[in-house]
Design brief:
Layout (H helix, E strand, L loop, with lengths): L1 H9 L11 E2 L2 E3 L9 H8 L11 E2 L7 H15 L2 E2 L2 E2 L4 E3 L24 E5 L6 E5 L1 H4 L5 E5 L5 H8 L20 E5 L9
Parallel strand pairs: 1-3, 6-9, 9-10
Antiparallel strand pairs: 2-8, 4-5, 7-8
Length: 197
């Protein structure tokens, strides 16, 4: 949310938004006006405040049935994105990190989804059972650049375990982020970084 607000406030006029296309790495299977919708959050904090053509916004339709939507979105990515190493390539993928080590919507109990040959999969939240549509490791690691944006003390333990490769770190899907381009960046606030500084 902070990144969206920063882009809207400081780069509204400096970025040629007509040349930018936005995609979603994951989405909860809820309507676009639902409080838990990733699209709704982006719309409120960024899209409603910049001049971006509607046709440049490519959201995951959380209100649709999950499996067909995962297939539809995968087909859209295959059609719209340039292909490199036989897979669609994003210019930039921005990721968060969950306190359990998940990223996108690939959770530790479904870590096998990371290695899926599909571009998109249906994931299930381990506590709520909520369905989500997520891109897979195939696309994340094929991106030209990947950036982790991590805030809060609750993430500090997992940040330390992953970056210092502590025992069992490979069980966290976030530890599998390793773009073949080498373009991986971690942006941490002081609280998230407190175990490594």
């Amino acid at each position: 949310m902070v990144v969206y607000e920063e882009l809207a406030a400081r780069y509204r006029e400096r970025i040629p938004w007509s040349l930018v296309h936005l995609y979603w790495g994951d989405e909860r299977c809820v309507p676009p006006d639902h409080p838990e919708s990733n699209y709704r959050m982006c719309k409120a904090h960024l899209l409603d405040r910049i001049d971006i053509p509607p046709e440049n916004i490519h959201r995951i339709r959380g209100e649709s049935a999950p499996a067909p939507e995962a297939e539809r979105y995968a087909a859209l990515l295959g059609e719209n994105l340039p292909v490199k190493y036989r897979s669609p390539q994003f210019d930039l993928v921005m990721l968060g990190l969950g306190e359990d080590g998940h990223t996108a919507s690939i959770f530790p109990h479904e870590a096998k989804l990371w290695d899926s040959r599909a571009y998109c999969e249906v994931a299930t939240h381990p506590a709520s059972g909520q369905k989500r549509v997520t891109i897979t490791g195939r696309l994340i690691n094929n991106a030209a650049r990947v950036a982790f944006l991590v805030t809060g003390a609750g993430k500090a333990e997992k940040v330390m375990e992953i970056l210092q490769e502590k025992e069992g770190f490979e069980n966290y899907p976030a530890s599998r982020v390793s773009p073949r381009s080498g373009g991986l960046f971690w942006f941490l606030d002081k609280e998230a970084a407190r175990r490594i500084i």
